[in-house]
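Notes continue from the previous slide.

Worked example: a multi-chain complex. Inputs as given:
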Amino acid sequence: MSLDIAAKTPHDQLAEMLAADMAAVNALIRDRMASEHAPRIPEVTAHLIEAGGKRLRPMLTLAAARLCGYAGPYHVHLAATVEFIHTATLLHDDVVDESTQRRGRPTANLLWDNKSSVLVGDYLFARSFQLMTETGNMRVLDILANASATIAEGEVLQLTAAQDLATDEGIYLQVVRGKTAALFSAATEVGGVIAGAEEAQVRALFDYGDALGIAFQIADDLLDYGGTSAVIGKNTGDDFRERKLTLPVIKAVARANAAERAFWTRVIEKGQQGDGDLEQAIALMQRHGAMEDARSDALMWSAKACAALERLPNHPLRDVLAELADFVVSRIR
Amino acid sequence: MSLDIAAKTPHDQLAEMLAADMAAVNALIRDRMASEHAPRIPEVTAHLIEAGGKRLRPMLTLAAARLCGYAGPYHVHLAATVEFIHTATLLHDDVVDESTQRRGRPTANLLWDNKSSVLVGDYLFARSFQLMTETGNMRVLDILANASATIAEGEVLQLTAAQDLATDEGIYLQVVRGKTAALFSAATEVGGVIAGAEEAQVRALFDYGDALGIAFQIADDLLDYGGTSAVIGKNTGDDFRERKLTLPVIKAVARANAAERAFWTRVIEKGQQGDGDLEQAIALMQRHGAMEDARSDALMWSAKACAALERLPNHPLRDVLAELADFVVSRIR
């Protein structure tokens, strides 16, 4: 491996190795996001899709199918499906969160309106459903239907768990699976299924996607509090201000004494936050080893993702997926 | 036929003839709208589903399957699917329309919030998708995926066509198919497909549902202006105040002279409405025969629905479906 390659992120490597497949996915996405009758639809979707997310989820599907030796056409449909589901959830999330920025651009709900975001999201869900139906594979439909339900359920759970100190690590995992891991694991699993991989490999692909998603989300939670260094940067504390029960907070609350519990009740449940409260929250999380333990959890999930890959065929794509599992926690190492 | 039966609406007759099937559908709906993890979900869905809509769509699926001789279990899954898709669209519609009342009760977006309505709607879509996947029938998946896309597309189109005098009858039909007819026609079509009916019968079932939905919607449009009697009642003019381009308005606009066009531009496009404008709108629609022509269109679609039924096996349910097609336009006869 040349130095040049070594310096590339796993994401860039995947993009290079899957370039031909991704070109087909992008063409299919462009074709299917159109609407003969309602020009508002491609306007909204183009705004979001062409803003160029990382396209990580479709690449996971392509990589899974390829490393299981798939040579048919349908991994492209499934990759586009996964990206459509992701885009639809982003549109609806921005309505739910009343967001104004996404990928550095104004959100669709801001540029058009909430109505367009809701309905165009529904359109993309329906389109994703058409795309996956074209594969003619009942099992991938089953997997993606279940993932869609898990995603929606996790989002509702997040809504009701938000600002509730009773949220425990079990609920947290449920929310994270809905938010991130369910689509990651479905993306990898359907790649294996469409390739006709044997059961143990399909299971390994699911486990990889699931663990990757969870590791990614915990790392994100930690970084929002400045990571383990706890250096307060520009974006530090967004989750705190939004009173989210993320993993380090949940761990610190579980270990809180009475005075600390009163603090958490005030800043998270009641939302009464003032100067110094973010620093105090970070200090409490560090005192109880909550940051350190959350970091260990993330590394454990990352290791779990890598272990799952060992049950898959030896393949250059498998090596990059391992690097990816490592990469998502590199920011908190 | 006894007088007692004759006095019943076609809807009541369907409910009686399909009572055992509908009990199974309701049990399945109750079972699948639950969520182990997120109690907010059954709260919201129960609020809407137990408000007791007419359950017309699931009955269409059951009737179609039964009159084609189906004896398996999956018409129940498909009927529940169709009701879930319908309920999901209602939840999202109420967010889009900022509605406060539905079926005589406060809407979910009012009782909880828009967020819950968006996400629980997504959950029901995902659940509907799981339900239909359980049938193992690729073709019904294809039909319902296409219907979902048509529904979403029609809703977006309605959003952009609203208050736009350029909306013609072609766009109107597209919107109506999205709003009403696409789910009606999918409901009847999948009933035939799951029963293994022959192609001509499946097509007849589609045509029936499509025509029924369009007839229903045009009748609704007319009634909003007091029907052909043009008697101004309590709910008369809701569409006018919301500046909707419904069929009688579209016809009147197409036949307007310059002065009339200025009137429509003011009240619909600019939304400047004052005392007497509703009466003036009705007078213009009557002067140009727009009400009368819309009424003819509705009757034509109703007749088309009945004609489609003649391509289906002779069956008591077929007779009730014919009565239903007649019933939806009885209010404007």
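Summary box: Chain B touches chain A at residues 35, 37-41, 89, 92, 95-96, 114-116, 118-120, 122-123, 125-127, 129-130, 133, 136, 138, 141-142, 145-146, 148-149, 151-153, 155-157, 159-160, 171, 174 (CB under 8 Å). Chain B has a mean pLDDT of 90.
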